[in-house]
Write a structure and sequence with these properties.
Layout lengths: L1 H29 L7 H15 L10 E3 L14 E6 L5 H14 L4 E5 L6 H10 L7 H13 L2 H9 L3 E5 L2 H9 L6 H6 L9 E6 L2 H5 L12 H14 L4 E5 L4 H18 L3 E3 L10
Parallel strand pairs: 2-4, 2-5, 3-4, 5-6
Antiparallel strand pairs: 1-7
Bound molecules: ligand Z5A and magnesium ion.
Length: about 290
Amino acid sequence: MYNLVKFSRITKRRCLQTMFFTDIQQRNKLNGSSSTDRVSAVHEYTVFFKRAGNTTNIHTTSCVNMTGSNETNEKQRGALIVLEGCDRAGKTTQAQKLIKSLTDDGIKIKFMRFPERSTKIGRIINQYLSCADNLEDHAIHLLFSANRWELVAELLETLKEGTSVIIDRYAFSGVVFSAAKQGMALEWCKQSDVGLPKPDKVLFLNLSPEEARKRGDFGQERYEKEEIQKKVHEYYMELKDDSWKIIDASKNMDVVQEEIKKECLQTIKMTKQTLGKLWVVEESSE
Ligand code: Z5A
Ligand code: MG
């Protein structure tokens, strides 16, 4: 009886191992990387089995299993990558270049941005940003947040089908621009975005307000003032965690692009199946 159980466990493990390698090799092919990239395959396999062998410790509240199952041949989800940074740091320019370059390389990739001004909520935000309308500080903060929540289903669906998403600004912008105002605490500002999909990587394009001023159109919209930008930078640094990478955005556009692309490819390659939830503390199910 013991031998039978042992045998079936080993057999099961071997089957899973074969399926897992095949899956990774297929993904590598799609991503344009070498199908013999065994080092990363072995790494992913090890991480996977550490988890699978310890299922009681997998926390359920702080991450989203993209398939809703624990089958091993599940489709690899896309990576969620966010570009953040102060005004005129080059987020939109870099995001667009990146989308083109990754698409040309055959990688499934989609562009999103916040605020997304084309929705009903987005149109109100646009009126506010262009100073055509005024809104109470807490109210506009919640609208920025609602603008993200209204697109979460679309975002999750895209990731689930294996397409990576590059987002130009996200909840971090929401928090820092509101917190830079009088009487709005950073912790309060985070609350409405708690539980959003957590980015696998945040690329922070770092540029001083002095450098930003030299770039086009600075000062046209509501927050484009130097003292606000300085506070915004401070708050960004308070939100920074291990998933952030600071990029020097004062360099030449192509140099910046090269660094960003390298980070994205690495993130796409190493993306785990479970997607975290933003600012949700991990809880063990024990
Ligand atoms: N906001 C908020 O309050 N709450 C929220 O929840 C969210 C946002 C999501 C509008 O956002 C405002 O909304 C924003 C935060 C607030 N306010 N501010 N400040 P937006 O994303 O729509 O803002 P934008 O109008 O697109 O500006 P931006 O994002 O700050 O700029 P950017 O995308 O970082 O820069 P860019 O448009 O790519 O480049 C700017 C110029 O610099 C352009 O002429 C480029 O050609 C040039 N450029 C770019 N890179 C370089 C390099 N490397 N060298 C030289 N020149 C360069
Ligand atoms: Mg932009």
